[in-house]
Amino acid sequence: MSAWRRHGPLRFVRLAVYNAWYELRLARRRARQNGDDFDAAHGTDTAQVVEVGSLDIESANVRHAVRYQPSSAGLVRQAIESLEVDLSKLTFIDFGSGKGRVVLLAATYPFKAIVGVELSRELHEIARDNIKRTGLDAADSGNISLLCGDVADYSLPDSDLLCYLYNPFGPAVLTPLAERLSQHSSRRGHRVFVVYVDPKHRDVFEKMNGFQVIRGDASILILRA
Question: Domain residues for 12?
Answer without folding.
Answer: 2-54
